[in-house]
Amino acid sequence: MSDVQIEGIETEAGQLAGPSDFIALLKPRVMSLVVFTALTGLVLAPGGIHPVIAFAAILSIAVGAGASGALNMWYDADIDRVMSRTRNRPIPAGRITRSEALAFGLTLAGLSVLVLTVLVNPVAGALLAFTIFFYVVIYSMWLKRWTPQNIVIGGAAGAFPPIIGWASVTGSVSLESIVLFLIIFMWTPPHFWALALFKSDDYARAGIPMLPVVSGVAETKRQILLYSLLLAPLGVLPAILGFATPAYGVLAGLLGVAFVVLAIRVFRMDAADTSMKAAKRLFAFSILYLFLLFAMLLAERVAQLAGLIA
Amino acid sequence: MNAGPEEKPVAPPVELEGIRLTEAQLRRRRARSIAIGLSLGALVILFWAVTIVRMGGNVLNRTL
């Protein structure tokens, strides 16, 4: 017993982590998308917000997202170890222990909610707390390993940041922010299933019931197309509802058509095609699609605030 | 009872048992400490800045 303990201690001390390992726990790439979409919600919201308060809001949302990432890695360390995509994360690689990640995640989660509540407003704080709870408990602990619909419902967690950004300014949830939520919500399934198509071996090995593993490739392709068809009109909705210009509407429409075309190509992909080029292309384009949509909304609003457009 | 100060026996230097960190580990621990310190400092500055913003002009409105 004591031998084991001493060995354990030596192992931990032997792999003392540096700050960069803890930054990796925050999933910086996911965080950057969260910051971007939250900022869009914050800038689009009517009424002003002091830049310092806005900075505090975005920082809290970013740290809250990071905390979710750390708690997700704490819970998923066992499956991260067997998937090639996640094998080098700090916990499976042995640089950080699970308990360190748990403590780090819980501390940051509490701190981010507290700061957003106290410095910005309680509605935004409550929304952030719910988002962290949804991602960690509902998605990571429950849905992810239980149902192939995991990312459909779990995608809601990733769709909340623009609502939190908007609420940071107005202290409320509105139709406009719900539209931004819906765009990300509908975008998540085709985005992740495109990835799951060419990484299905990984998910199968880890025992995660991703759609291609449970229902097969054909059903996944059908679902990707279905969600793409729902997503394309949603992308145009900000222009129809009047919180984006017709120019945005046209561009969002064209990008939506391109999304659907790529989804059709995935749908028609030959079952014997192991290179999965069409799926990889859709996955890459989906990232560009969401980025461009939110970048256009952001740029338009900034131009409007600067008096460049009506 | 009131005897003069006794000479204390000098203990031989004892090698402390436990984990001895390597140079690389000490460096990483130092980097972690600095990162935590900087984060806490940034949090203090953030709370200070937001306090000033929230008070606005009232910061000068006090009896002297």
UniProtKB/TrEMBL annotation, chain A:
The lineage of its organism: Bacteria, Pseudomonadati, Pseudomonadota, Alphaproteobacteria, Hyphomicrobiales. The keyword Transport does not apply. It is an enzyme of class 2 (transferase). GO terms for molecular function: protoheme IX farnesyltransferase activity. Coiled coil: none annotated. It comes from Kaistia hirudinis. This is Protoheme IX farnesyltransferase. It catalyses: heme b + (2E,6E)-farnesyl diphosphate + H2O = Fe(II)-heme o + diphosphate. PROSITE patterns: UBIA. Pfam families: UbiA.
From TrEMBL, chain B:
Keywords: Membrane, Transmembrane, Transmembrane helix. The chain crosses the membrane at residues 34-55. This is Putative anti-sigma-YlaC factor YlaD. It comes from Kaistia hirudinis. The lineage of its organism: Bacteria, Pseudomonadati, Pseudomonadota, Alphaproteobacteria, Hyphomicrobiales.
